[in-house]
Each structure stands twice: as structure tokens, then as C-alpha cells.
Amino acid sequence: MTALLADKGLDKTNKLFKNQSLLDEHYGKHGQEIADVLGDSNYSIDKYLDDANYIINNGTYAPELNGYVSFMSGKKYGFVGLDRTTGDITTFHIKNISELIKKAPSLGFER
After folding, report:
1. What is the model's pTM?
2. How many domains does the chain have?
3. Three-class SS string for the chain?
4. Structural domain for 86, as ranges
């Protein structure tokens, strides 16, 4: 599918964490929770970064959080935060709908 999008001239970003140690740290902190939501028992650090970029490219921007959100399962959304200066990924983790209602009203979520 990526090749098809590239052929159509759509510019898809491929962002990174500032450095490998930050990626390692955040994967260690949030990787298992994301794997559990996705039902993926072989969730790798590469998949973690790929999924973060998927959310950036296909999710909804929340200016209050300077990041992107995308529905994952139930009341859980993937959230990818970005550095306001560099645009690097700062985090990728799960946020529940009630947290997004409070912290990101621009998304228009309601109880």
C-alpha cells in the first residue's frame, strides 16, 4: 500500500525519535501495552516505530497535545507526541477516550 501511495505523489512522513536511546526507552515503557491492545505477541521495536509513523500519517492532529491520535481498540487511542521545535517523535503510547476528552477538546470527542 505504501508503494501505491508513493506512486500517487502523496507525501508520507517517516519520523524518528531524537536518538536510539529515547526510542529504546519509550519502547521499553509503552511497547507491551501497545502490543496488548493490538493483540501482537511478537511486537518489535521496529513495529513500534512503524506504528508511530502510521498514526502520524493517518491519525488526527491534536494541537493541544502537539501530536496525533488514532483509534486502536475499545476506548483506546494511539498517541504520538512530537517535539515542537524539531518535529521528532517524543512518545508513542495509549491514551483512553476520557483523557482525550479532557486534554484535547479540538478532537470533538464526547462522553
Report:
1. 0.87
2. 1
3. CHHHHHHCCCCCCCCCECCHHHHHHHHHHHHHHHHHHHCCCCCCHHHHHHHHHHHHHHCEEECCCCEEEEEEECCEEEEEEECCCCCCEEEEEEEEHHHHHHHCHHHCCCC
4. 14-107
